[in-house]
Amino acid sequence: MAAALKLMSVMGLIVLVSILEIDAAGECGKSSPDNEAMKLAPCAEAAQDEKAPVSAGCCTQLKKIGQNPSCLCAVLLSDTAKAFGVKPEIAITIPKRCNFANRPVGYKCGPYTLP
C-alpha cells in the first residue's frame, strides 16, 4: 500500500512538472525573445537601415526564427532588440529582403505588418 502511494505521488509530481513546462513555453518555445534576439546580431545593420545589405548570416538566422511568426514578432519588439537600436518598422522588412518565398505576408506584429 505504501509503495502504491509513493508511486502515485511520483506520477503526480511528474504530471505537475510537465504541465508547468508547457505553460512556461512562450512565443519562442523555451527560449526567450531576448535570447533569440541575440542570435540575430548579423542583422543589426539591416534592422536599422533599410538600404543596408542583408547578409547571408542574417538570412540564415532569420529563417530559423521566422518559421514561427509570433516568435519573430516578439524578437523584433524585445527589449534586447530595442537596446541594439533595431527599428521594428525596418526590421520587419528583412524577410522580404532575404527573398523568403514562404514568409508570413500580412502577419500583424504590434502596429507593423510583414510585407
Give an overview in words.
The chain has 7 helices and 2 strands; from the N terminus they run αααααααββ. It is mostly helical and 115 residues long. The longest helix has 23 residues. The chain starts with a helix and ends with a strand. The N terminus is likely disordered.
Distance between the termini: 63 Å
Summarize the biggest pleated sheet.
2 strands, antiparallel
Are there runs of 5+ residues with pLDDT below 50, and where? Answer: 2-24
Structural Rg: 19 Å
SSE class: mainly alpha
What is the average per-residue confidence, as pLDDT, rounded to a whole number? 81
Q: Could you spell the SSE succession in H and E letters?
A: HHHHHHHEE
How many strand units?
2
The largest sheet has its strands arranged as 1-2
- The coarse overall form would be globular
Q: Please count the helical segments.
A: 7
**How much helical structure, as a percent, in the residues?**
40-55%
User: What percentage of amino acids are in beta strands?
Assistant: under 5%
